[in-house]
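# step 3/5: fold
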Amino acid sequence: MEKRILECVPNFSEGRDMGVIGQIAGVINNIKGIKLLGVEPGRGANRTVVTFAGEPEAVCEAAFQAVKKAAELIDMSKHRGAHPRIGATDVVPLVPVSGVTMYEAAEYARSLARRIGEELGIPVYCYEYAAYSEKRRDLANIRRGGYEGLVKKLYDPEWKPDFGPAVFNAKSGATAVGARDFLVAFNVNLNTKSKQIAEAIAAEVRERGKTIVDENGKKVEVPGKLKGVKAIGWYIEEYGKAQVSMNITKLSVTPVHVAFEEVCRKAEERGIKVTGSELVGLIPLGAMIEAGKYFLSKFQNADEATEKELIKIAVDSMGMSEIREFKPEEKILEYVIEGRGKRP
């Protein structure tokens, strides 16, 4: 029988206090049957992405304990950061890896959301495959207005939480819990500090695109270039760079190297350059192999290269070690789950 593995990638609104981050990661790591795959804090975004996996029941317990700990330690009324957020635990996505269907993942997400709402008194919205309505399927709709807009949102009957009280919780905010496909969080670095330029590029590459006013004064939606990609632009003071921050939700439609190349093109149109990129969380091995073959094929037959060589070519071609060293044993999903201690 195929082993049942569910992945969870909660995002917490704290990226600077390593004591707080360590305590949250600690409660996850203490749950039997859980494998902690990654803890990635970001100072500029003031946000930490934690990745762990295991049997579904253990994953849901670890997620609940992490949300509980975050509610104890993080005060959203004092939080400032570049990334959109609605709560101390901003989002809790469940991702089926093996032996678990998306339908089952959605049911686990709804059960977890109910428990968070009822036991912790935190307003919870269900999104993606766990959503109860089409309007709430898109996480961006739930996040719109951010933490600061929650007071108004919670008292709007159309935005009553799926679970928990429809009351503003100043300390913890709200949380979104969902089930989704594997997502690659990928930031492309620009040789500019201009947030406006990064935002303009993001609007042109993301699937949703942008809104313009035509010659008749009518608002028109102009779709972006990349299907299955969400993107925003921001400036990260810690890096001294602006970034196009992307969530690639459909790797089979838009591979990571295609997204990278498109941002490069849009940057060049504006007279600036891409200096590298940053992977937040994990990436499937296949995506790195595909990227390596793409870049190598510009010079020679990619079939001649080994797995190790293809990964290195992908990392070098997209500058994935510019911010911090890209370690395959820590960043490639299959390597982490299999516990490969050596680099490929």
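# step 4/5: annotate
Residues 102-120 form the longest helix (19 residues).
# step 5/5: archive (pending)
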